[in-house]
């Protein structure tokens, strides 16, 4: 059975890194890679051993299983084998219009971002892997744009107070942002609707902001839960109060399958200090900040607003390593003796398999 890896079109990551080749081959797979597939992630072809290289068309036509970090281009699907397994991160909870199209073409589709976020599936949880990188990168991006230091400094020329960082949403990305901002010496506080987040936030040395009356759903898979309008009004008032004292706001709140909740309206930005920075990780689903533009850095009311939901791709080498590991851990239950398992009733496979008949 041939495992194919193509070069990403819109992404610097690659789905298979050189050090994982031997592990994938141990599952009984032959590996065919498009030339220079890993180059943008700093994995030149010379690092890959015991694999075959080919053109993009050769990989698409010969692979029984295709893996990619970002979905293939639409024109690529028609070039793949009948009954080929196509594995990527399709985010069907936002748009599933292509699923029936691929099914009608005779393709089988696995979406890694549909793997349940349970203890059993932790090693395959690509969303958490990428969120951790995004939270880390968000702080570095904020520090780059902020015209001030993060840490407190006492110098002969005078003392500099530490920057104040407000993190909205304390899931995987938010917690990593908190930890990174703390390491850089900032004073950090965080807000999350989930009560369970409080202990984690405090353990990282940040202050937890509480708003009474939040709906809490531990089954939401790390996503925020849609809240009542009364709660949202309380939340906005408290966020505005905290934001006016913050140098940096990092927003990570998303409701799966819905528009991201508005946490930072324009009136909040008007109260922030000139030179402050907002990094919005929910930009692709509408943004937590009213003036966010997805994929852009904008300057409004003296504030820099960074809209980027794909910060993990800006650290492609480690991101590729984690994706490759996540996929391999999934393959340990998905592939047996070099073949796709016949019984796909396994909870994890069944959840991620988009083109199933039942």
Helix and strand topology:
Blueprint: E1 2-5, H1 21-25, E2 30-34, E3 52-54, H2 56-62, E4 65-67, H3 74-77, E5 85-88, H4 97-104, E6 108-111, H5 126-145, E7 153-155, E8 158-160, E9 164-168, H6 172-183, E10 187-191, H7 197-203, E11 207-209, H8 229-243, E12 248-251, H9 266-271, E13 277-280, E14 297-300, E15 303-307, H10 316-334, E16 335-336, E17 339-340, H11 347-352
Helix pairs in contact: 5-6, 5-10
Order of SSEs: EHEEHEHEHEHEEEHEHEHEHEEEHEEH
Strand content: 15-25%
Helix residue percentage: 25-40%
Using DSSP, what is the number of strands? Answer: 17
CATH topology of the largest domain: Rossmann fold
**Terminal Cα separation, in Å?**
26 Å
Q: What Rg, in angstroms, do the CA atoms define?
A: 22 Å
CATH class of the largest domain: Alpha Beta
Largest sheet report: 7 strands, mixed
List keywords for this structure.
358 residues; alpha/beta; Rossmann fold; 2 domains; seven-stranded mixed sheet; six-stranded parallel sheet; 18% strand; elongated
